[in-house]
Amino acid sequence: xxxxxxxxxxxxxxxxxxxxxPNLAIxxxxxxLPGHEVRVLDLVLFKPHFEAALRQALSSLxxxxxxxxxxxxxxxxxxxxxxxxxxxxxxxxxxxxxxxxSLMARELTAEAEExxxxxxxxxxxxxxxxxxxxxxxxPAPDLGGILGLSYRQGQEWVHNPNGPLLxxxxxxxxxxxxxxxxxxxxxxxxxxxxxxxxGCPNNCKFCSITQMYGHTFRRFSVERIISDLKAIRxxxxxxxxxxxxxxxxxxxxxRQVCQAIIRHQLNDLCYLTQVSAAGIAQNPELVAEMDRAxxxxxxxxxxxxxPNALKGMKKPTSPELNRRAAALLRQHRIAIIAGLISGYPxxxxxTVTQNWRMIEDLQPDLIYSQYLTPYPKxxxxxxxxxxxxxxxxxxxxxxxxxxxxxxxxxxxxDELYHLVRSLGFKSNFNISLIVxxxxxxxxxKYFLRSLGKVVAEGVYNLTRDLLPKFLQPRKx
Length: 476
Known about the structure:
The chain has helices at 24-31, 51-61, 75-88, 99-108, 126-136, 209-213, 222-234, 251-263, 277-281, 284-292, 307-312, 319-331, 349-361, 379-386, 413-427, 431-435, 438-442, 444-466, and strands at 2-7, 19-20, 37-42, 65-69, 93-97, 119-121, 149-153, 156-159, 185-186, 189-194, 197-198, 218-219, 239-242, 270-275, 295-303, 335-342, 366-371. It is of the alpha/beta class. The protein has 2 domains: 2-159, Cobalamin-binding domain (Rossmann fold, 3-Layer(aba) Sandwich); 184-464, tm_1862 like domain (pyruvate-formate lyase- activating enzyme, Alpha-Beta Horseshoe).
């Protein structure tokens, strides 16, 4: 069977200045579809004008099945892409998957006639999608036994029970050679993505991971991880981003990965990953091994330096752990992208500003600032809805963390939005952050170009706010 797998082009605005990331899910699906002609197209490479690339892929492959993957803020684009495919060839079977589909399948199918899709694959798709394709090749497909599948039956949708979580080492390696286009990067480095584990047992109120996997943590074998990294290097990539939900949950496993990278001389690749502040702060020996394995950039979910905010969100860290984690990473010259969230229910102008200043005191190399976002099915969404603090209840296109969809008990949505934008703009000129910046030291030319774009956008936004009579105000 001829199969085309697509990821959506939408990205959070901030990331466009520094990176274009591939989608791991669709190449993992491709790797677990033996015996089929599978092609993969990451539409992010063609943002914002992706229609021509999509039509070319459809014309050349003439797929019988198209799989579409989307996050919550990308789902409106997924529907647009599905309608384009329907217009191109109405006989193509359309299958959607990803976080939003997995969490919102019943809500999405409540208006069955409005949904231009034939199937929904919920939670992990490698087994469900393969079983679906196998059945679709038969004259009379039997869909009732495929766990994790939703499908049309007449005018109604049927939702089969969820399947068990997968035994990760039964999965084949991602099929990266199925890509129709490449060009992924971080700064000036060609970059691909990989994973060493899935799941996170923590229960942060703003996170949807537990809605997908429960409070579980599963590991890929070190041997499989090394095989995947060798395949990535063989394709000419210079950097790898590990997209694990919580790579520092199992310290022993992560240390084994670092040791294997060194042992197999794969530390000529540059590694990036997300880490928890607690996992780093409590394991200095891990940070030393990350350094030797050539982990050069970490995204650290500090989120806040306010102990009350951290406790309220059930975030398993503290201001002291945040400080220790930052100090350890700086000691080993590992760049820090500091995750910061603003818009907690009790936030005031003073608490938001103080939180920014305390995050800056950690001397991160970049601050990745997000607004508290009420993602579907998360505990914080229900709390914020009950408190009347959600401004955009249903416009999920803005649920990317970089649009402000909430207010606090003390700040309107517009006040919160402009306060955070102003603080972010000013941090670009923080002398202490500039002096210690690892990106400036190692990626000067590219980073200055990116910073110039950020500053230009900041100047535009501040000017627009100061001259509302002459410039179009922001519309939500």
